[in-house]
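---------- Forwarded message ----------

FYI, see the Cytochrome P450 704C1 record below. Original note from H. follows.
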Amino acid sequence: MDSPLSLPALLALSLVLLVALHLARRRRVAGKNRNYPPVAGTVLHQLLNYGRLMEYLTELSRRHRTFRVLTPTHNKIYTVDPANVEHILKASFANYDKVGTMHGVLEDLLGDGIFNVAAGAKWRHQRKVASHEFSTRVLRDFSSAVFRDAAAELAGVVVAAAAPGNKAAVDIQDLLMRSALDSIFKVGFGVTLGAVLGPSCEEGAAAFAMAFDDASERVLYRLLDPLWKVKRFLNVSSEAAMKRSVRTIDDFVYAVIDRKIEQMGRDQQEFAKKEDILSRFLLEREREPGCFDNKYLRDIILNFVIAGRDTTAGTLSWFLYVLCRNEPVQDRIAEEVRAATTDDRDVGVQELAATLTEDAISKMHYLHAALTETLRLYPAVPVDAKSCLSDDTLPDGYAVKKGDIVNYQPYAMGRMEFLWGPDAKEFRPERWLNDDGVFVPESPFKFTAFQAGPRVCLGKVFAYRQMKIFAAVLLYLFRFQMWDANATVGYRPTLTLKMDGPLYVRASPR
């Protein structure tokens, strides 16, 4: 992918930022009663550190728990203070919203879906319907069955790769992404993609997945590129590629919607029995004609995809990456899974998957802790931004101006010693367990992987269910090691914390 800015543009931007810095200092002097956060850099510094942006922000956060980054038009405020997070997400929820700059940046990809829309009628409608669906036993049972089948299918692919004499490395991240895509399309939209089997993948699914990844990366560039609107108007560079990706995404998603509508037209009585989320939305539209159109459904679909595929598959990838360097943790999880399911019996993939009932996975406290510890260090959404609607003061005493973008930082927060102790950078699942080995949650304003307050993730239980089923199957059957013991893995700068390349592992049968 091309750099977000050329060298001349960077020089021009640096000049603009120097002027902005000078004006900010003058405003600071003029505003005698306003205590603004310290300036830790400019958007130019972020661009220069783009390949290691999370580490850069973490370093700044160790020096300043709340700080400002200057842009030509507004302040970007970053914080790792849980009191500030609670203020933004709960106490002053109405004053911090997904509006203005952020909505425009993400609109091409996420439209007016639940993650990008302001807290108005559309947000309330989607949250109400989604809340109802996630709380129903029908969706719980349906999704569990889908996850068990998907995990068994994935394990079958790994079994073949782990067979004696097979010297090929397994790219487990790619397999997890494909399997999660299969799962979320089945649960969300009643569509069987077959993505994990590669060549038999439904026509367009592979292109959709690639386009979605590309678009997710390019919208993040927009947050740092003040010229992105000019590029979009001229249809050049990264914005021309963005347009192509969105076209591919739209073609696939609208085809899915059209097929569902056709099914509903053929037999509405039978369609009413459908358990997937898209069908439920279509049935609601039938009850209230005109309440939303296909574009709105498209936005809902893509928001569910980024929630149900990118986050869970990404977390499972980081989970296995960390566990490749922690074999005792792998063994302890395998023992816990065995105790909760088959006890001393050795069973095959299908029988194992069938034992992963709601009751069984609820007993897996250590697995839950290990997944949560992964999310602490590698949160699916590493930084989340809100726009300030009116002047405010944060609990730490720092002022925020109307129009400022306020960012709380799950990635940096997971590495703060003042929050987690001197071993904050270490992977230690035991920190989540009490003396009886029972999982004990932390405040959602300290552990922010699932947001908190009115926007708390409705799919949290759903996500843990999916991850625990996949992890239980894989670790019961296999022991994982890095294919290259010295290899390290970085991340791609996308909306979610995705690995920047393959995760090649060696899978050995237990």
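H. also flagged this: The longest strand covers residues 504-509.
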